[in-house]
Amino acid sequence: MFYITAVMLGTCLALMALGIFLTMKIFKIPDITTDGSYTLGAVVSAILLTKGYNSLAVLPIVIISGALAGIATGLVHTRLKIDALLAGILVMTALYSINLTMLGRSNVPLLAVANIFQQVAMFGNSNINELVIAGVLLIIVVAILVYVLHTDFGIAMRATGDSSTMTTALGINNNTMKTIGFAIGNALTATSGFLVAQYQAFTDINMGIGIVITGLGAVLIGDALQQLFKLRSITSQIIMVIVGSVVFQLVLAFTLSIGIDPNLLKLVTASTVLGIVAITRLRKQSS
Asked: Is 271 within 8 Å of 215 (Cβ atoms)?
């Protein structure tokens, strides 16, 4: 049971990991807005679902809300010239109050509402149905993301992260590119919150605290796998991030299955990420 849940959570959280991948690996910017925009996606989902809205109709609103959070961080960073890390922290802090105000209380159960996994029932087995729906949505997002990153616009985004001086000389507006990157990244993160809230059947105001570490762990595992198999294309990098997300959740599931106290789960998460970073750095030094 631990492992089935881990694979499902890894699939849902892969969208958030892709958002972190976009800002951290493409633009070389650490975006802490993730903690707030992840909860924002869950909060918007809870509010609209409890009012009777169809989950498929809620999804575009969740995507827009996440994008707006990313745009806010992008504008604070690019227009006010505030460090990206601090800009993300400021917006994340503001989102906590916004989320709490919109939700009205710290926790909202979603057991009584029809979620996306119930509305799109393709299989009789609920576990298989949930995994397939999350997987299909993930495949659609990955296909769109891969397509966008291979267009002229996507290449300009990637070039902005690699050399902002060069892109400026080519007439590309780096500030606009970064802001769009923040918007896409946080839209993906909010969508992840949308899925997880419905999978776990509740939205909690604190569910996003530390979630950036989970996403970072997935990206780092994906990076390690990419180096191990000597993969270079942007498509393979995206796929490895998804694999990293599932692997990371399986590692956490294993720690729970062997009897580790759930109260220590955050410690295990931080230690796992630290271990991945340390191994990656040591390998680079030895090579």
From this structure: no
Does residue 286 sit within a domain?
A: no
Cα–Cα distance between 203 and 107 in angstroms, integer? 6
The number of folded domains in the chain is 1
Identify whether the C-beta of residue 32 lies closer than 8 Å to the C-beta of residue 183: no
Q: Quote the CA–CA distance of 67 and 180 in Å, as a whole number.
A: 8
Q: What is the pLDDT along the chain (287 residues), one digit of tens a residue?
A: 678 889 999 999 999 999 999 999 899 888 999 999 999 999 999 999 999 999 999 999 999 999 999 999 999 999 999 999 999 999 999 999 999 999 999 999 999 898 898 887 777 788 889 999 999 999 999 999 999 999 999 999 999 988 888 898 888 999 999 999 999 999 999 999 999 999 999 999 999 988 998 998 899 888 888 887 888 899 999 999 999 999 999 988 888 888 888 888 878 888 877 887 787 777 767 66
d(CA 23, CA 161): 9
Residue 213 lies in a domain: no
**For residue 163, is it within any domain?**
yes
Please check whether residue 218 is in contact with residue 248, taking contact to mean a CB–CB distance below 8 angstroms.
Answer: yes
* Domain of 41, in residue numbers: 2-208
pTM of the shown model: 0.93
Q: Flag whether 161 is in a domain.
A: yes
